[in-house]
Structure to design on (377 residues):
């Protein structure tokens, strides 16, 4: 199945090495192997496979390879320095695609720099936009399936919803047991499991590290470290408040969301908000990685507690103010307030269950699924 980044990656491979990252089992390897059919002498090497590791360490892959796919290479010691040598010494006309299930800018940092040698793309789970384009499904049907199954390919495409549930249970077990330990050398798996359980119940709310530390009976810096690990492995992502002073925004409490919506413990409204957050982040990353735009995702909250769910910014300025509602078509008072403060931004209330779209100045009340189907990815 062709993914939304396939053509973009093929185009970029003509110019530079491409690094493709994303959550575990989001389809990176499947996409890479599908791209091999576009080359005459493609070669795929996985660091986790012992025979492939031997070839990688000795750099004895075929000199005729016009596409070299290096999977999970970031697990190698001093991988940046290694890749720098591979890129600088590659054969003329040879393309290089590197894939991995962690943010490579944080995995085993080293002093070597790959600046100017690669393009980075982040592969996300299926979204309403991607599934509608692939299958001509109705946006509402695509959204219902995404919220029930999540956007990860295997459970999303499974015929039996029970198989999707079994997949998700095993996925998290493997993730904590293998990836988290390997990534961070964290040995206290019990605390990590409890942290994830707590985060599942706090989706969409400002996150207090101090409160989590008290609940887990660990130091706040330990919680911060574990959050960084989960974020670097694409399990969760943090949405920070919008503020023109970047330093102040970083200090304020972020909100947490999951890449895979079915992990969320909450009512229909919370699951709907998480699904919107995940697809908005996919849209933002596409704009950044593929189009080179300065898009960012935030939320807005005042000291008095007035809050809207999301703010899409371009070049540091709000362009869209977004509030997610499950069925409420009455414009949110906070959205009206912020629309007055940022008149240049479009004010949108996304409603999952909506019979008729309306414009109640200054807020557009829109069917959520239809709007999500118009995002970039």
């Amino acid at each position: 199945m062709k993914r939304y980044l396939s053509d973009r990656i093929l185009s970029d491979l003509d110019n530079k090495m491409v690094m493709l990252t994303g959550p575990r089992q989001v389809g990176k390897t499947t996409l890479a192997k599908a791209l091999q059919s576009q080359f005459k002498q493609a070669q795929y090497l996985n660091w986790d496979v012992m025979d492939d590791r031997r070839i990688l360490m000795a750099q004895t892959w075929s000199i005729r390879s016009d596409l070299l796919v290096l999977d999970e290479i970031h697990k190698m010691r001093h991988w940046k320095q290694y890749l720098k040598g591979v890129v600088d010494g590659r054969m003329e006309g040879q393309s290089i695609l590197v894939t991995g299930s962690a943010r490579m800018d944080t995995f085993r940092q080293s002093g070597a720099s790959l600046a100017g040698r690669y393009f980075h793309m982040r592969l996300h789970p299926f979204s309403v936009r991607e599934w509608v384009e692939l299958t001509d499904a109705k946006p509402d049907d695509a959204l219902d399936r995404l919220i029930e199954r999540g956007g990860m390919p295997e459970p999303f495409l499974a015929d039996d919803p029970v198989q999707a549930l079994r997949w998700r249970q095993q996925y998290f077990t493997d993730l904590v047991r293998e990836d988290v330990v390997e990534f961070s050398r964290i040995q206290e798996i019990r605390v990590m499991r409890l942290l994830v359980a707590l985060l599942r119940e706090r989706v969409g709310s400002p996150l207090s590290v101090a409160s989590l530390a008290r609940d887990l009976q660990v130091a706040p810096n330990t919680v911060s470290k574990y959050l960084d690990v989960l974020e670097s492995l694409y399990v969760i992502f943090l949405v920070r408040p919008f503020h023109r002073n970047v330093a102040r925004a970083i200090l304020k409490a972020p909100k947490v969301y999951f890449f895979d919506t079915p992990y969320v413990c909450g009512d229909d409204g919370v699951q709907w908000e998480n699904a919107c957050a995940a697809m908005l982040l996919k849209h933002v990353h596409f704009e950044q990685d593929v189009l080179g735009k300065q898009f960012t995702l935030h939320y807005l909250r005042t000291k008095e507690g007035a809050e809207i769910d999301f703010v899409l910014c371009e070049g540091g300025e709000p362009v869209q103010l977004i509030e997610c509602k499950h069925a409420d078509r009455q414009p949110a008072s906070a959205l009206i307030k912020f629309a007055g403060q940022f008149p240049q931004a479009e004010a949108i209330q996304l409603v999952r269950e909506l019979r008729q779209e309306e414009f109640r100045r200054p807020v557009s009340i829109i069917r959520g699924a239809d709007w999500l189907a118009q995002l970039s990815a």
Notes: Residues 6-122 form a domain with the Rossmann fold fold (CATH 3.40.50.300).
